[in-house]
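S.,

Sequence below, as promised.
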Amino acid sequence: MFIGREKELAELERRYQQPQFQLVVLYGRRRVGKTRLIQQFCQDKPTVFHVGLQQDAHGALASFSRDVLAQLPSEGSEFIESFRSWQEAFHYITLQTAQRRVILVIDEYPYLAQADPAISSILQAVIDHEWKQTNLFCILCGSSMSFMEQQVLGYQSPLYGRRTAQMNIRPLPYWESLKFFPGWPWQERFYAYGVCGGIPQYLEYFAAYDGLDAAIKGELLALSGHLAEEPANLMKQEMRQPALYNAIIGAAAHGASRQSDIASAVKRDAGDITSYLKALLDLEILERQMPMEESNRKKVVYRICDNLYRFWYRFIPASMPLISMGMADAVLNTQIKPRSHTDPLFVLWPLVGNGSRHQASGGDWRGCRHGPRHPAGRMQVAQ
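The prediction came back faster than expected:
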């Protein structure tokens, strides 16, 4: 099931129809659906699809060689085990795309660059001297936001100025996210968005269930659920000190919003967590906000902008003893539902104007009604 991304697909298709070399840099946070979007676009088109892995330079070249030779064969290519260099691999692609349109996808490009830091400079040379004269449609894709913005798109990158398009893939808007649950009551669809946000993979996990209760219990309140450890695992993958990052996100999930309040909650000086907050901003887990009428930067507040992280850190760690004993119903009915009308985790208020309250009583999910303005007042994203 593929939902949404009509504009992105249309733009990729428009550029594909132009008979010239294209270098599209496509990036976005993990799980946002980048690879699925590329796969949808590449359907019924000649494509070489390579996914970078965390390995050394020799292994990276050998893996790339296997994919290119298998998906872009030529006379005698069956006798080539591996290219001897990146230059040789890229020149082979030049020869095979001189007269025909072929898509080359390098997914998780940051892993290749980590394996061989020279690869961006090598790509620069081959683009300038070979690929610009071909019909190659090249897509560089990555989940490391800082790497893609600095090392691929940034002024200091060897690839600066070579890209013909860049696409920052964002979570789906709520009106597209709700389409994942065609048979659910409308209230439960909105609450599901409040838990999953617009992340397609999370929405697909929930869509496998008949309703919201079953989805939360199966995916979050069961040790075998896909999302039971998702945020914690991503922190382990992305961060060198996941414990402190977990503590910072947990503090924000429980209401700490100013840097001083977050620092106090994690028992650190405010200045000590500045770099950690920046890293979480880069990962788009946190965002900075400031009351619209304010100009004092000290008034900046931080909030969790990722719905799943907000939900998970608000409820799962504290409920782990009950979850470990298989008491998902107890967690759902005594911890989650009673608090859904006071916690801002079910993020409907940005969607319906001035804000909304959510009521839950008797173990049921109920719809929203308009309430007073959100306590933080009118907000804007701080620059």
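The two ends are 36 Å apart (CA to CA).

Coffee later?
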